[in-house]
Design goal:
Number of domains of chain A: 2
Shape of chain A: globular
Structural class of chain A: mainly alpha
Number of strands of chain B: 0
Oligomer: heterodimer
Number of helices of chain A: 10
Distance between the termini of chain B: 31 Å
CATH class of chain B: Mainly Alpha
Helix content of chain B: 55-70%
CATH superfamily of the largest domain in chain A: Ferritin, core subunit, four-helix bundle
Shape of chain B: elongated
Largest interface: A-B, 95 and 77 residues
Structural class of chain B: mainly alpha
Radius of gyration of chain B: 19 Å
CATH superfamily of chain B: Ferritin, core subunit, four-helix bundle
CATH topology of the largest domain in chain A: Ferritin
Strand order of the largest sheet of chain A: 1-2
CATH architecture of chain B: Up-down Bundle
Largest sheet of chain B: none
Radius of gyration of chain A: 23 Å
Distance between the termini of chain A: 69 Å
Helix content of chain A: 55-70%
Largest sheet of chain A: 2 strands, antiparallel
Strand content of chain A: under 5%
CATH topology of chain B: Ferritin
Strand content of chain B: under 5%
């Protein structure tokens, strides 16, 4: 039997459609028994761990004895993002539920390691945007104790970049408030406020990954270029100068996360980088538009301005 | 049950979830499997994602090319027409990159548009009357592309493909931010400010806030990996 609807005919019968849907559902159920069985309990565990992570407390108090190796999925990052995505305009609860499901699957153990998504060809230290191994350890840190190792250096770098952006936008707002720039266009004021709020949330996401791995959150800006940025901020005397400096930081962040997105070691880490990079790229576009430049200058996001972990001083 | 009770949209959501789940399961379990069979399955999965991505890009190229031919776009704000033209070129480059990657992985080039969204465009385009109508339609497609490509960063196995998706998704997001700015200016009667360079001091506050609506790029409702696959 065929059903016409608005000139279009359902090419199979309702019974057949029902049977196929049922078969498809059953097939998935057959494929996923272990993961499905554990999903609910894992979601509960993640919910239970949520408040501690949001407070930035090291998870060692809550999860003593668990493996906190670098390759383990950075579950809190995604879980925190679930909260963010439940805001208006964000992803819905269905997606959050599915993400929890995946996070649950990730902890099942050796048989279902989420870290298995890492490409076999990816070096432990990652590869530079040009395909060469980056200088992973900063000169000072190499001589002392390195706080963040392997792929966590990229996570720490990312958190530091977010803090740097938050600080820069804060300085710009303070300078504008002190009338250092003269009249500030309303679009610039709202943009700076919004972008700063975004970077605060991004920093939380990256830091959640660090604390979940048993590492301290990056709460300041341990970057070798911070002095130069601070000096540049002090010298800013116009809205245009401020926007150009912000653009530099946004370009760097977007391109760094692009690199982190394809060199990540955990599903949650890759997803965090992949979902933050487009937002930084949007910041770039609006800043470019305000500055009178083409908002989308290239067909592919480049990587030449990406930061490398060598910028990190801890 | 009468014909009027059949809503073909109903099976779409569970089908999409099921396909996403299947793809995620596939990705997760890949680490536990070894050998040629696993590599072959991963490659097939990647090719499917590339074909769907190319299909979305083909549709965006088609939309923007149709849009620049519309009289109210041709005679409207010059910057809008130029943006549509540039965006068409970007999407053409994306489609080419996805198709070349598919061919390299042993697949074929997808030259057709995404069927699901093509139906939306076909249904909507004849009724558009203003640049704002076209912008709304383009936003719909750019949003779908950004969500899908971002989602694919986590779905594909090959690092080079992950890099490709990761470099395209932010550009779709940038198209979206620009379209949101244009939409906002059109809606507030500031058509004269849609130009490059713009008159920044006169830009309304909404340009700084309404153009980036999410803190994280959403990936919910990303198109199913197989939606635009070659059949």
């Amino acid at each position: 039997m065929r059903r016409a609807r608005g000139g279009w005919e359902l090419p199979i019968s309702e019974d057949r459609l029902g049977r196929l849907t049922k078969e498809m559902t059953e097939a998935h159920h057959d494929t996923l028994p272990a993961m499905r069985a554990d999903a609910a309990s894992l979601a509960e565990r993640l919910r239970a761990l949520g408040p501690a992570r949001r407070g930035g407390r090291p998870v060692s108090e809550d999860r003593a004895g668990e493996d906190r190796t670098a390759g383990r999925p950075a579950a809190p990052t995604a879980a925190d993002r679930v909260t963010a995505e439940n805001r208006p305009g964000g992803s819905g609860p269905a997606d959050a539920g599915r993400r929890r499901f995946l996070l649950g699957a990730g902890s099942l153990g050796a048989a279902l390691l989420l870290t298995g998504c890492t490409s076999a060809g990816t070096d432990e230290k990652g590869a530079s945007p040009q395909g060469e191994p980056p200088e992973v350890l900063p000169p000072r840190a190499a001589a002392d104790t390195v706080m963040y190792t392997a792929h966590l250096r990229f996570v720490a770098l990312s958190a530091a970049l977010e803090n740097q952006a938050v600080g820069a936008y804060g300085s710009i707002l303070a300078a504008a408030g002190a009338d250092r720039f003269g009249a500030v266009p309303p679009a610039v004021s709202t943009f700076v406020t919004m972008a700063m709020a975004h970077h605060i949330d991004h920093a939380k996401a990256w830091n959640a990954a660090l604390t979940d791995a048993g590492k301290p959150a990056v709460t300041d800006v341990p970057l070798s270029n911070q002095r130069a940025i601070t000096t540049a901020l002090d010298r800013v005397t116009s809205v245009d100068d401020a926007a150009k400096l912000a653009l530099q930081l946004e370009d760097q962040a977007a391109q760094t996360y692009l690199f982190a997105g394809y060199n990540g070691k955990s599903a949650a880490g890759i997803e965090t980088a992949a979902t933050i990079a487009p937002v930084e790229a949007m910041h770039v576009s609006i800043l470019r538009f305000i500055l009178g430049q083409d908002p989308v200058p290239e067909a592919f996001l480049p990587e030449d301005l990406a930061a490398t972990p060598s910028l990190l001083t801890v | 049950m009468g014909a009027e009770h059949i809503d073909t949209r109903l099976p779409e959501e569970p089908t999409e979830r099921s396909q996403d789940l299947h793809s995620d399961t596939h990705r997760i379990t890949r680490g536990a499997r070894t050998g040629p069979a696993a590599a072959e399955a991963a490659s097939k999965n990647d090719i499917t994602a590339l074909e769907t991505a190319a299909a979305l890009e083909n549709l965006l190229v088609s939309l923007y090319r149709s849009a620049v031919a519309l009289p109210f776009v041709k005679n409207g704000p010059k910057t809008v027409a130029e943006f549509f033209d540039t965006s068409a070129q970007h999407h053409q480059a994306h489609a080419k990159a996805f198709n070349e990657a598919a061919a390299k992985a042993g697949g074929q080039a997808q030259t057709q548009p995404d069927e699901t969204y093509e139906a939306v465009v076909t249904r909507t385009l004849p009724s558009v009357r203003t640049p704002a109508d076209v912008v709304r339609l383009a936003l719909h497609l750019e949003d779908a592309a950004a969500r899908t490509h971002t989602r694919n960063v986590t779905r594909v196995a090959d690092t080079k493909l992950r890099r490709l998706f990761a470099s395209v998704a932010p550009v779709e997001a940038q198209h979206r931010a620009t379209l949101l700015a244009v939409q906002s200016l059109l809606a507030s009667g500031h058509e004269s400010l849609i130009e490059i360079p713009t008159d920044a001091p006169r830009l309304p506050a909404a340009i700084g806030s309404a153009t980036i609506p999410e803190v994280f790029q959403p990936i919910a409702n990303a198109r199913p990996m197989s939606e635009g696959a070659i059949k």
